[in-house]
Amino acid sequence: xxxxxxxxxxxxxxxxxxxxxxxxxxxxxxxxxxxxxxxxxxxxxxxxxxxxxxxxxxxxxxxxxxxxxxxxxxxxxxxxxxxxxxxxxxxxxxxxxxxxxxxxxxxxxxxxxxxxxxxxxxxx
Length: 124
Hints:
Layout: H1 13-41, H2 46-68, H3 78-98, H4 102-123
């Protein structure tokens, strides 16, 4: 794209913000899927696998809805929201690592950190 002298190109931040929010939602869903995948693969007995496969993502959903969701029931200051996000999204990456996919886990963790940083920059 070429510009004329004296013309400033304005980047539409709304599009980048929306794209980052879509990515954030995809990461949240991926984290829940990874937690469930890890849980169903943990242990040898069926009962603990089902308990972890259903219970771990369910616990993450409860934490998220209480503290980190845009319409969280208990609005908290940013540090606690970031701790909950780190637990849920970082837990998803850790679960992916525990399921035997270290490269994917590191990739997910890097994307989560970048996405969260951009989200906080856009919110200011």
